[in-house]
TrEMBL record:
Region feature Disordered, mapped onto this chain: 1-28
Residue stretches of biased makeup (Pro residues): 15-24
InterPro entries per the UniProt record, alphabetical: DUF4283
UniProt domain DUF4283: residue ranges: 96-140
Species of the source: Turnera subulata
Pfam families: DUF4283 (PF14111)
Protein name per UniProt: DUF4283 domain-containing protein
Length: 141
């Protein structure tokens, strides 16, 4: 059996010269075009553009000054702080997670897609089923 000989282009040969210069109006990555035709978004807004929480985002507040959080130091040691939250504020923090569930399959490992498909089949939710891989075999749904 004979070996096929495949011609390879020379690595030292220069590429052919273009016949005419490129058209500047045909540039796809023209930053001036994109900046003029799109609103300026922060990094967080670009990540959460379609999420409800982007609409409900609240400005940052100093919780200690607002009286919502109290800080005590265990034994007077400033390296061992203890935080106490207002009960109403704690309920507000917990509200988005009220209907959440942390899952861990014991005895074997399962992948994200397999678990998501299995949960959709078993639970048959009427809405969207969100699943988040927390690592160490744990998932949040």
């Amino acid at each position: 059996m004979s070996a096929l000989s495949v011609p390879f282009p020379s690595l030292t040969a220069a590429p052919p010269a273009p016949t005419k210069p490129p058209d500047p109006s045909s540039h796809i990555h023209d930053t001036e075009f994109f900046e003029a035709n799109s609103p300026r978004l922060s990094f967080l807004e670009s990540l959460m553009r379609d999420q409800e929480c982007a609409k409900k985002r609240q400005p940052s507040v100093d919780l200690v000054e607002a009286g919502v959080v109290q800080i005590d130091f265990v034994g007077g040691n400033r390296l061992h702080p203890s935080f106490e939250l207002d009960k109403e504020y704690y309920k507000q923090l917990c509200a988005p997670w009220r209907d959440s569930l942390i899952l861990k399959l014991l005895g074997r490992e399962i992948g994200y897609k397999a678990l998501h498909a299995h949960l959709l089949q078993i639970w048959q939710p009427k809405g969207k089923l969100d699943l988040l891989d927390l690592g160490a075999g744990c998932f949040l749904t």
